[in-house]
Design brief:
Chain B: It holds the Pfam family CCG. Chain B: InterPro entries: Cys_rich_dom. The complex is a heterotrimer of chains A (459), B (244) and C (187). By secondary structure, chain A is α/β, with parallel strands linked by helices. Chain A is built from 23 helices and 10 strands. In chain A, the strands form 2 sheets. A 6-stranded parallel β-sheet of chain A has the order 1-10-7-4-2-3, with helices on both faces. A 4-stranded mixed β-sheet of chain A has the order 8-5-6-9. In chain A, a hairpin with a 4-residue loop joins strand 5 and strand 6. The longest helix of chain A has 23 residues. Chain A starts with 7 loop residues before the first helix and ends with a helix. In chain C, 21% of the residues lie in helices and 24% in strands. In chain C, strands 1-11-6-3-2 form a 5-stranded parallel β-sheet. A 4-stranded mixed β-sheet of chain C has the order 7-4-5-8. Chain C has a two-stranded antiparallel ribbon with strand order 9-10. Classes of the chains: A alpha/beta (459), B alpha/beta (244), C alpha/beta (187). Chains A and C meet through helix 2, helix 3, helix 4, helix 8 and helix 10 of A and helix 1, helix 4, helix 5, strand 8 and strand 9 of C. Strand 9 of chain A pairs antiparallel with strand 8 of chain C, so a sheet runs across the interface.
């Protein structure tokens, strides 16, 4: 779970205090953006695919109730048990109920941002269930008692030395062995024991197909496949926006997902589940938890098109230089900065301002969510609800007054221009603008307006 | 052709030479240019900070001040992109008449030469500012699978001797971001440093762009950290003022 | 209970109707040599592709590629090992399984067989061999989805190369949880 009292500017300042490490974080993630670009360059139909993906999702949202009912009908015909959860608490109760009824005390989990959103792990652990996150990155942050810092690469903020130390402590690996292959294979051996001994497996859902009642889960590691193929109980948890109408539509989304997310032509495993495995059970929990409210907001419902690829984070220059832990909501970066404030503007207002409006995220988004517009629209909600810091509100208010009075406007500008140069040298450097390493602008003797009046104004 | 010169607040106060160069360039093509004294702010700061009413009031004022002109031309790409994209629909007539300087030279005047020949035997690293790039299609963003084009590159072809290069991350944001630069000074400066270093790594002597605020922000980083490369607004280069 | 409340809220909040696109209308990429595209791609994804020589059996090809072997289970044969539980495949070294089609754009093979009770075989085996008819190689996932069927208890998977992860400092490591290496045999 994340500390939602985080404010982005302060947390980012702390992260940037170690500039070398911040540079490393930036280039590690930029590398993924470059891999994504290389994949894009190989597909002439890239922009067509993005438009199609946008249209399919927009259509699905416009009839979401019908598609959910169709999905439920087909899934039940296939022998899948469908549950509905209005909020995080109901979701957690359903999952725990399924485990408790069967006496399950160990659960292997593959990646699911939804269960992070719902706080499932601490809920289950408090009730005596051992929860094992099986995605390598998630396992790492779980052992460190941290939240994921990225939705696709949960441990991207960590160096291999830190992971080596963690594994030495938790898994008994050799001290000082930082080799990623060695460390990964140590985790493989350890997690295989958990896969083989777990009483249930929980997976997220990438796509749910209304036409067939099927679920699609994509991983590179195969952890969702092991977790759902071995234990007798498979629980799949999905946000209600995961629907797509038809099987053939996967021919659009699976082409975009891994290319956008990790710069790979596909994930290793794109698995389709329609029925329980022989001798087993398959349960799906459809979760609302605020989504149906977002659906009703004209400015923000498009964020429900998101397929959680994380490309917006990888391209975001602010995210790369501040890390996932500088954001108060569990999903960081551009998409998190609209989803978080949609959920609670007062808690998450600082996320909406952690953005230069460079709009690169709009261009990488495989479902064409207008993210930068949404962030600015969230700022308007912050303004309306009083979630804005007082100083900012006053400054913008003052600007509004000046805007209506050209003479005052010119006077204010001139005052600024004349006062800055006579500031004591200390003050000129020791102010929040300059402290990180940036000089105040040089103040010219004359404004353009003054120059115009002197040189061009006809008498 | 009646042309109203729109000079963004920060250009008026902090970079008047950019506005003077813009004026001179337009006049060089034989145009009569007026600078309406009643102009103030286009409303972008209000808009970007969530004050939509304040932004709309500023936009309304802007439309009134510039009502009598056929074209509104500005050396500020970002303010132009705000007026062009984020003002109320009722002001659509203002929106369609507002041009950034290079857009105006290329799309309206369709210029094939500069008023005065410019010789600039220097290597320049192009800074595609985000709003020009992604809101005004000044170039093809590196994120898109579209045929490559660049306005700034095309206009610089009219300058003798100049050689144009790009930094490795072709169109990464410099970190200015309007009030972002004071809300998040550490991130803003970190981005600015990386951007300046990227431009400098090309071996260029100048960072050339069409958005004064980005250049001002990078210039602040350059001066505080004593770096060799210099920011240069394209209007200054196109009027032969860049060599200093 | 929550079901009806959720659906009612969605109905109340439905955005304006948006049309579905015709995903079959535009031309997508085609490859002059699909096999070459597939083989080049899978080499970077922890896998290898080969075509059987005339008269060569799958087993011969596998034996040549991976000489030292532990337990081998070959479900392309009519008679093969069976498992009483999905856990029984835990000690398999090499699994040889039929693939129904292969995709040139991403080196994926569609696996879904009706004769297999426990799919855990694909994921527990240390090494995975997928045997695909040479003429079942399509250009893109759009073509693939037009041809997939769910033979195996409603399960089917596109598998592309070996299990892998880059969760430690973006270093690509083969063999995260599933197969450490993959071999695709076209016949």
């Amino acid at each position: 779970m994340k500390d939602d009292s985080i404010r982005h500017p302060a947390a980012a300042r702390e992260f940037l205090a170690d500039r070398e490490r911040a540079r490393w974080h930036d280039s590690a993630i930029w590398w993924v953006r470059q891999k994504r670009d290389a994949q894009m360059a190989q597909l002439p139909e890239w922009e067509t695919l993005r438009t199609m993906a946008e249209q399919i999702k927009a259509h699905t949202l416009s009839r979401l109730d019908e598609y959910l009912e169709a999905f439920e009908r087909k899934a039940e015909e296939n022998g899948v048990v469908v549950h509905w959860a209005a909020d995080a608490d109901e979701h957690n109760r359903i999952v725990h109920g399924l485990l408790a009824e069967r006496g399950v005390n160990k659960l292997v989990k593959s990646k699911s941002m939804l269960t992070e959103e719902c706080g499932l792990n601490p809920y289950l652990e408090a009730r005596g269930v051992e929860v094992i996150d099986t995605d390598l990155g998630e396992r790492i942050v779980q052992l460190r008692h941290e939240a994921p810092s990225h939705i696709v690469m949960p441990a991207i903020h960590l160096k291999k030395q830190q992971i080596s130390e963690l594994f030495e402590r938790e898994l008994g690996t050799e001290p000082g062995n930082f080799d990623p292959t060695y460390l990964t294979h140590a985790a493989r051996a350890n997690l295989r024991e958990h896969f083989l001994s777990a009483g249930a497996g929980l997976t997220g859902v990438n796509f749910a197909i209304a036409e067939t009642g099927g679920l699609v889960v994509c991983t590179n590691e195969g952890n969702a496949d092991l977790g759902s193929a071995l234990p007798p109980l498979h629980i799949a948890c999905m946000g209600l926006e995961k629907l797509i109408p038809r099987l053939e539509h996967l021919g659009v989304f699976t082409r975009l997902l891994a290319r956008s997310a990790i710069g790979s032509p596909t994930t290793t495993y794109t698995s389709h589940f329609h029925k329980p495995r022989p001798g087993g059970e398959l349960h799906v929990v459809i979760v609302d938890n605020g989504r149906s409210e977002i659906l009703g907001r004209e400015d923000f419902y498009q964020s429900l098109r998101c397929i959680r690829c994380g490309a917006c984070m990888n391209t975001c220059p602010v995210y790369r230089r501040s890390s996932g832990y500088s954001y108060s909501y569990i999903i960081p970066g551009p998409i998190g900065s609209t989803l978080g404030p949609s959920r609670d503007i007062r808690k998450h207002a600082s996320m909406a301002f952690a953005c230069t409006t460079c709009a690169s995220c709009d261009n990488v988004c495989p479902v064409r969510i207008p993210l930068s517009e949404q962030l600015v629209a969230q700022r308007a909600r912050a303004w309306q609800t009083g979630a804005l810091p007082a100083g900012k509100r006053a400054a913008i208010g003052a600007l509004g007054v000046l805007t209506r009075h050209p003479a005052l406007f010119a006077l204010a500008g001139k005052t600024l221009r004349k006062v800055f140069p006579i500031l004591p040298a200390g003050l000129a450097q020791d102010n929040p603008y300059s402290r990180p390493g940036r000089a105040l602008p040089e103040m010219p003797a004359q404004s353009f307006r003054e120059w115009w009046l002197q040189n061009r104004k006809k008498p | 052709m009646k042309i109203g010169l729109f000079v963004p607040c920060h250009v008026n106060e902090l970079a008047p030479e950019v506005a003077i160069a813009t004026l001179e360039l337009l006049e060089g093509y034989g145009l009569t240019v007026d600078y309406p004294l009643a102009q103030t702010c286009c409303g972008q700061p209000q808009f970007n900070n969530g004050d939509l009413k304040g932004a709309d009031r500023a936009a309304g004022r802007f439309a009134e001040v510039f009502a009598g002109y056929d074209y509104i031309v500005s050396p500020g790409t970002s303010c132009v992109s705000h007026v062009g994209a984020h003002t109320p629909d009722a002001l659509s007539k203002t929106r369609s008449r507002v041009y950034e300087l290079v857009e105006f030279l290329q799309d309206v005047l369709k210029v094939e030469r500069l008023p005065k020949p410019v010789y600039f035997p220097h290597k320049v690293s192009l800074h595609q500012s985000c709003h020009g790039l992604r809101l005004r299609a000044h170039a093809t963003p590196s994120e898109r699978m579209l045929p490559y084009q660049s306005r700034l590159e095309r206009i610089l072809a009219l300058v003798d001797g100049v050689s144009v290069v790009y930094p490795q991350r072709r169109d990464e944001c410099c970190g200015f971001g309007g009030s972002f630069c004071v809300d998040e000074p550490e991130v803003s400066v970190a981005m600015g440093e990386d951007r300046v270093d990227g431009h400098a790594a090309t071996g260029a002597e100048f960072i050339v762009g069409a958005e004064p605020s980005c250049l001002m922000h990078m210039g602040g980083v350059i001066r505080a950290q004593d770096k060799a490369i210099r920011p240069l607004h394209i209007a200054l280069l196109l009027t032969g003022r860049g060599g200093a | 209970m929550s079901r009806d409340a959720i659906l009612a809220r969605i109905r109340r909040h439905r955005p304006a109707e948006a049309a579905l696109p015709d995903i079959h209308a535009p031309a997508f990429i085609t490859y002059q040599d699909r096999y070459a595209q597939f083989a080049t791609l899978i080499a970077g994804l922890g896998g290898h592709a080969l075509t059987l020589a005339p008269g060569q059996t799958v087993r011969e090809a596998v034996d040549t590629h991976w000489p030292a072997q532990g337990r081998v289970v070959d479900t392309t044969q009519a008679i093969h090992d069976e498992a009483a539980s999905p856990h029984d495949w835990a000690d398999v070294d090499i699994a040889i399984v039929p693939g129904q089609l292969a995709v040139a754009e991403n080196a994926a093979v569609w696996v879904s067989q009706d004769a297999l009770a426990y799919r855990s075989l694909y994921f527990l085996a240390q090494r995975l061999v997928m045997v695909v008819p040479r003429d079942a190689l399509v250009d893109t996932m759009r073509d693939a989805y037009a041809r997939v069927g769910f033979a195996e208890h409603g399960f089917g998977s596109f598998i592309s190369g070996s299990s892998r992860t880059a969760d430690i400092e973006q270093s690509l490591v083969m063999g995260a949880h599933g197969a450490m290496a993959a071999l695709v045999v076209f016949e």
